[in-house]
Amino acid sequence: MKKSSAFAGLFAGILALLTFSCESLDGLVQAPTAEVKSVSIAGVDLDGISFNCNYAVKNPYGVSISLKNISMDVDCDNKKITSASTRNGLNLNAQSTTTNTATFKVPYTAILDLAKSYVSSKTLPFNIDGSITIDTSRIPAMAALGTTSLTLPIKTNFEVPVFKPTLSVANFKVKMPSFNEILNQLKGGLGLIKATQIATKLISGEKLTADILDGIAMDIDFTFDLNVGNEGAADWNFKINECAINTKTGSIADVGPVSKNTTVSSKKSTVPMKATLNTIEAGAFIIQLLNKSGENPTFSLNSALTFPDTSYAKNIPLNYSVEIPLSSIAR
Question: Considering only 97-106, 151-160, 192-201, 313-322, which range has the smallest mean pLDDT?
Fold first, then answer.
């Protein structure tokens, strides 16, 4: 009888402890938390705007745990536009807060389509609604209840500028010096007859031999227009940083605006560009331009964007590269 009574008392005690643990787990064990710290623009290209969602997860436990999954839906007007997700790989150190970044891209097609419902709006209200799942299998109290994971909600809102950049180049031209300017530059070193022959060939438009500029030092301007535009309503500043004319062997010449103004803020603008080519350094390329033959060069642009009416950082990078058809070059 005594043994039976003792066993019954022990069983009742264990049952009470388990019941207490189940009902009071939240009060005894602080739950992890997750929050979005900020949303920033990571970069822009000709397809869309890339964003960084910077979030933090707090692990209150005395042991490290890991992020099992993160899933975020990005929407506007209850329309899902895109999503961001990651799996595994992030360790959450014991009793600390860990930060990480999820990246997603909003295409311009979606931005301009949504903007039709917001007449004259310069930005659109977007939302992030998702969850973070963490692996809690190393937490004894959780494991005792058969729970090996915990899902935490995560949400925020942010603004997207109504914006789509357009970039193009046109009106390529080799600006040759006049006949007399070429003659005056050459006759001192080549003599009048030889200088006259070369000047005539350079000006005539006839096909040139590869060696015609050998030993000749002369600058020739290559000009074109850079067309810059914004199809959206957002205010913007477009800044030209670096430009170059490139071939497969590397950069041939630096390019820059004809004027000193390197910033565009209007909806549409044409920026006259110029590269000064020296016959000693780029003689073979100049012959290609004048003969309109050979491999097409490329124009590369490194620029920066700022949206003054938003809280986003200034000088967001935008890179652009396009092939220049030699057949389109005028003289």
Answer: 192-201
Strands 268-278 vs 263-264: parallel, antiparallel or unpaired: unpaired
Q: What are the residue ranges of helices labelled H in 191-296? A: 192-204, 279-291
Rounded Cα–Cα distance for residues 136 and 66 (Å): 8
Q: pLDDT of 221-247, one tens digit each?
A: 999 999 999 999 999 999 999 999 999
Residue type, position 230, single letter: N
Rounded-to-integer distance, Cα 297 and Cα 253, Å: 11
Average pLDDT of the chain? 87
Q: Which residue has the tokens 């494991």?
A: 143
Res 144 pLDDT > 80? no
How far, in Å, CA of 256 to CA of 171, rounded?
15
Q: How far apart are CA 70 and CA 132, in angstroms?
A: 4
pTM: 0.81
Q: Which residues pair with 151 in a beta bridge?
A: 133
CA atoms within 13 A on the CB side of 320: 24
- Which one-letter DSSP state was computed for residue 233? S
Q: How many CA atoms lie within 13 A of 235 on its CB side?
A: 6
Q: How far is 234 from 242, CA to CA, in rounded Å?
A: 24
Name residue 183's beta-bridge partners: none
Number of helices (H), then strands (E), belonging to the chain: the values are: 6, 15
| CA distances in angstroms from 17 to 23, 25, 142, 143, 145, listed in the order given | 10, 11, 15, 16, 13
Q: What φ, ψ does residue 326 adopt, rounded to 5°?
A: -60, -30
Contact (Cβ atoms closer than 8 angstroms) between residue 199 and residue 186: yes
pLDDT the model gives residue 90: 83
- Pairwise CA distance, residues 200 & 182, whole Å: 9
pLDDT value of position 2: 47
Chain segment 299-320, per-residue pLDDT in tens = 999 999 999 989 999 999 999 9
Provide the pLDDT for residue 140.
82
| Residue 5: strand, helix, or coil | helix
